[in-house]
């Protein structure tokens, strides 16, 4: 058995002053552990979006009618609040699971040897986005599910997914300067794809804000536009994204690009096709809740796919310290 080192008073004070440094001095995670921690944070970022969608689709958005408490007299949901209160309060509790996943990612990144400051910063960026979105979620409840605040809540969740995906990617790379794997014209095409995808997601929030799923059974304000017209614009943008993705795959094949960008572009194309099928089916079947929830999951996967394509356009090997060359060695010998 391994003997556990006694905790001295100095150790306790050090842990209180800087707990992350204290843990880092005593624990060195493997590279795989850091990668898994980053992936767990990304998965939970997606889960919180899907469960948030479930709150809205079940009409439980005001299941807890106030914030930060569930009611004026209770911090938690009560039996009298029924199904909707349990759903809304359960989603609030998942925020703590998300915080735990992000916290694990921060601790693992900080404890990695050698320490990579950039990874730790990406973890802390996730933490502050989660905190900001928790406050915004409370504002959403306090203003009675105003559709503009609901849209902002989703977009901030998308920002969390963006940072989490970037951190996951960086755990599998080194810190050397990025080296492009494709030419500038291909990079520009990918940025067009990124911009089109951002517009697709933004217009999707307008479809949600104008559509029939207000998030609660009471009278809730909607964005004053015809949701069917916005849905058609959303579909046009989706076809633009699909076309750009197919064009990118064709160009990558033509220039004999590395397999990494090709595989990720293929994966994105398949996700887009599945998402398109779900989108059209839900449109022609009057937006059933199950398909809308599946479409929200697809939206997260599409965005992650786009980010993975963008990040596959370069490589970042491990930074290697410069070693003395032959000329330097001979100079030292003469000296």
Helices and strands in order:
Blueprint: H1 9-17, H2 19-26, H3 31-57, H4 82-111, H5 117-142, H6 147-170, E1 179-180, H7 184-210, H8 227-254, H9 259-284, H10 289-311, E2 314-315, H11 326-334
Antiparallel strand pairs: 1-2
Helix pairs in contact: 1-2, 2-4, 3-4, 3-6, 3-10, 4-5, 5-6, 6-7, 6-10, 7-8, 7-10, 8-9, 9-10
Key features?
335 residues, mainly alpha, two-stranded antiparallel sheet, 11 helices
Describe the protein.
The C terminus is likely disordered. The chain is built from 11 helices and 2 strands. The termini are far apart. It is mostly helical. The chain has a two-stranded antiparallel sheet with strand order 1-2.
Strand order of the largest sheet: 1-2
Largest sheet: 2 strands, antiparallel
Query: What is the approximate shape?
Result: flat
The low-pLDDT segments are: 321-335
Helix content: over 70%
* Discrete helix count: 11
Portion of residues in beta strands equals under 5%
**Overall number of strands:** 2
Radius of gyration: 24 Å
Mean pLDDT: 89
> What order do the helices and strands follow?
HHHHHHEHHHHEH
